[in-house]
Amino acid sequence: MSTVVVVGSQWGDEGKGKIVDLLTEHADVVARFQGGHNAGHTVINDKGQFILHLVPSGVFAEDKQMVIGNGVVISPSDLIEEIDGLEERGIRLAGRLSISNAAHVIMPWHVVIDQGREAQAQSGTTKIGTTGRGIGPTYTAKMDRSGIRMGDLLDPALLKEKVKRVLDEVNPIMVQRYATPPLVVEEVCKVYLGYGQRLADHITDTVTVVQETMAAGRNLLIEGAQGTHLDIDHGTYPFVTSSNCTAGGACTGLGIGPTQIDGVVGIVKAYTTRVGEGPFPTELNDEIGVRLQTTGGEFGATTGRTRRCGWFDAVLVRRSAQLNGLTTLAITKLDVLDELPTLRICTGYRVDGEELATFPTQGKLFAACEPVYKEMAGWETTTHGITDLAKLPKQARAYLKEIERLVGVPIGLVATGPERESTIINDLPF
Predict the structure, then answer these.
(1) If exposure means fewest CB atoms within 10 Å of the residue's CB, which of 127, 150, 229, 275 is most exposed?
(2) Any idea which residues carry the catalytic annotation?
(3) Is the dihedral of CA 183, 189, 190, 193 positive or negative?
(4) CA 368 vs CA 131, 166, 364: distances in Å
(5) pLDDT tens digit string along 373-397?
(6) Is the Cβ–Cβ distance between 267 and 7 less than 8 Å?
(7) Do 67 and 31 meet the contact criterion of CB atoms below 8 Å apart?
(8) How many Cα atoms are found within 13 Å in the side-chain-facing hemisphere of 152?
(9) Cβ partners under 8 Å of residue 36, min gap 6
(10) Is there a contact between 33 and 72 (Cβ–Cβ < 8 Å)?
């Protein structure tokens, strides 16, 4: 029996969907522990291309169980749409998907507040680059104990009581600050009770589901969304998401203990990307950056926004290794670098001519960092579809070896294309 957590180790968009889909073959249950439908996990397999937002990426193995844990915030309408879309394409979810009754619900006022705040933000520390889907305000409501949970959608009296209490406070704010018409308690309840009826067969105590999985000696694969440096506590604050996307979040987001985790896989691109605002030391605002965007298809799966691109940042990923206790690295998009004659890896940061001894945790200091680079030869030949490490060009093997050395974590998998089969498997975490 093994319990393995998969996390993004940069700023999200690292290719977690493909790796989770690949590893699902060795799991019995796949569980998602945080985030919301702001995540977009792309999976390409023999059934086609899919972009998943809430349903775990292991859903395509039809003999496996899926879990959406209590740490996830859920837009019921989007979840239903995603379930319907999968079933229309032959992916059955009945009897396979469990949704935590303690997961918080994204309500209409959360979306209004999220979009209103971002629209009023100007720049700098006030503009975050949120997707505007209500994620942050839902987590805020969770923390101030005014949230609505999935289990509440099954209790008409309780839901009405909670919605009325919130709208008494929120309606004046929406009208005055965001020029939005007030919401009507009865109308909101009618819609959300309908969602509850539709999802009732899936809503349950998922802590029991995952604990029984482990007690029975079955393999549990845990999927994170976003990336380590978007973590609300450990990311480049305030340009972060609203949840804990590090491996520790899997414990609170699913109801498992840290001693129950056997391995942590850190997903990293062979270069670095970032969506939205925030400092990015290795960002390339030149022809190479544009080439990485184009070749790598660096456009958000959820929003379509262009991703900022830069060289691989070993300092950033080494910090991720510490925060997550990484046991394995999975490198994605190696083939995107195929045409480049020279590559760079960031090995340190310099501020005012002085190299930093520790990772800069203050945003202002991080924004002032200049990267210290090691230059390496590119391979200028295709690696797409290679499945044997020994068949990679020697320069590509040297590049991977250097990443491994600088980060201090062994590389277990290397993706040489978006397809499931375009993967070098050096070592599996199960």
Answers:
(1) 127
(2) 13, 41
(3) positive
(4) 26, 42, 6
(5) 999 999 999 999 999 999 999 999 9
(6) yes
(7) yes
(8) 21
(9) 53, 54, 72, 73, 74, 75, 106, 133, 134, 135, 138, 225
(10) yes
